[in-house]
Design goal:
Blueprint (H helix, E strand, L loop, with lengths): L2 H21 L8 E5 L12 E6 L5 H7 L7 E2 L2 E2 L1 E4 L3 E2 L22 E3 L2 E4 L6 E2 L2 E5 L5 E5 L1 H4 L10 E3 L12 E8 L8 E5 L5 E5 L7 E2 L7 E6 L3 E18 L2 E13 L15 E4 L4 E11 L2 E7 H8 L1 E3 L11 H22 L1
Parallel strand pairs: 2-5, 7-15, 16-21
Antiparallel strand pairs: 1-2, 1-18, 3-4, 6-21, 8-9, 8-12, 10-11, 10-23, 11-14, 12-13, 13-14, 17-18, 17-20, 18-19, 19-22, 20-21, 21-22
Helix pairs in contact: 1-5
InterPro entries: Peptidase_S1_PA, Peptidase_S1_PA_chymotrypsin
Length: 353
């Protein structure tokens, strides 16, 4: 293992071990810990490092006056960085003005595809239909999006009706296209699947992008793209991986793991907004699915997504693509999973040292 890969493995291990002690300690006011690209202006070492995300960056004096503990400037060999970001789940809720369907992502689609409006039928909200997946055990076709888009309740039972477009975009009871099947919040992953009713078909296509080709692991510096209900097609760059964050979902605070941080590409101002929750982030070059969008920050502009392989494994589903036959459909995910397991082995080797 070369020095940089060994260093990265050590950092990822530290993030996993240390994150809870900062996230669950109110004295620090830390909302996320990850491994990523530093942005500190005075940095002499520009290599990826351990990063602490806070709602607002304060000076040492301001921290002391507010009674907030400063995060350590260095952990082992890593000079840490502090990233500003006030993250919230990216669903479009009832307190915003209703958005009648005017075409595009917010309209009624038949067949359906990724990147369009969807919501629980009884909630005046709107999120994004992520895409088409298949149950690994039964072969049943399903919609994959966020828990807070397809369920949004702590003890939600299977069978919750889902409509397309979402209720805030004019969805009506006769627009029900699926029913909630299961979610992964118990595994600290904001994701859920809903079984199609058969009234409308769902195809492997992301609105205004194209077909999803498979699954890929997130990499620092990777250029990615998504199609969302609110901001449409945007591009971003992954600046952080392996994150753990604590977000407020209404009155509940929940921990989400396997998080990546995304910033706009140079020259762009927007990467995501409320209503984009559930979008799939794809490798901009191959259109392989990399992450499931679930939250973001407006100032500074950043998006949060969950590693797609972790999402698929937690829900026991696989992405339906057009490039593989039924008999070979598991090979792309198996290759990605093998690569991820190699990273895990590197971490364990580091721990053994």
């Amino acid at each position: 293992m070369d020095d940089e890969r060994l260093r990265a493995a050590r950092a990822r291990l530290m993030v996993r071990r240390l994150a809870p002690s900062f996230l669950y300690n109110p004295a620090y006011r830390v909302s996320m810990v990850d491994f990523g690209i530093p942005i500190r202006a005075e940095a002499a070492d520009e290599r990826p490092t351990i990063r602490f995300h806070v709602p607002q960056k304060l000076s040492r004096t301001q921290l002391e006056r507010a009674g907030i503990e400063a995060v350590p400037r260095q952990i082992g060999e890593f000079v840490t960085d502090v990233i500003e970001g006030a993250y919230v789940p990216h669903i479009w809720n009832w307190w915003y003005p209703p958005q009648p369907p005017t075409g595009g992502a917010r309209a009624r689609h038949d067949p359906m595809r990724g990147g369009i409006s969807i919501s629980v039928a009884r909630d005046y909200s709107a999120g994004t239909l992520g895409g088409l997946v298949r149950d690994r055990a039964t072969g049943e076709l399903m919609i994959l999006s966020n828990w807070h888009v397809l369920a949004a309740e702590r003890w939600v039972a299977a069978g919750l009706p889902i409509c397309q477009p979402g209720r805030l975009d004019g969805g009506m009871p006769y627009d029900i296209v699926a029913t909630t099947m299961r979610h992964a919040m118990r595994q600290k992953i904001d994701a859920a699947v809903a079984t199609l009713t058969g009234d409308r078909s769902l195809v492997n296509n992301q609105l205004n992008i194209g077909s999803v080709t498979g699954v890929a692991l997130p990499r620092l510096g990777m250029r990615i793209t998504k199609s969302g209900r609110t901001t449409g097609v945007t591009e971003g760059i992954i600046t952080g991986v392996e994150g753990q964050t604590r977000l407020w979902y209404g009155s509940m605070q929940r921990t989400i793991e396997h998080v990546m941080t995304i910033v706009p590409t140079p020259g762009k101002r927007e990467v995501s907004a409320g209503g984009d929750s559930g979008s799939w982030w794809l490798d901009a070059d191959t259109y392989a699915a990399v992450g499931l969008h679930f939250a973001g920050s407006d100032d500074p502009e950043q998006a949060l997504a969950i590693d797609m392989l972790s999402v698929l494994d937690a829900l026991n589903v696989e992405i339906v693509t057009e490039r593989t036959s039924v008999t070979d459909r598991r090979r792309p995910e198996a290759a990605v999973r093998e690569a991820w397991q190699a990273v895990e082995r590197e971490m364990l080797e580091t721990l053994a040292r």
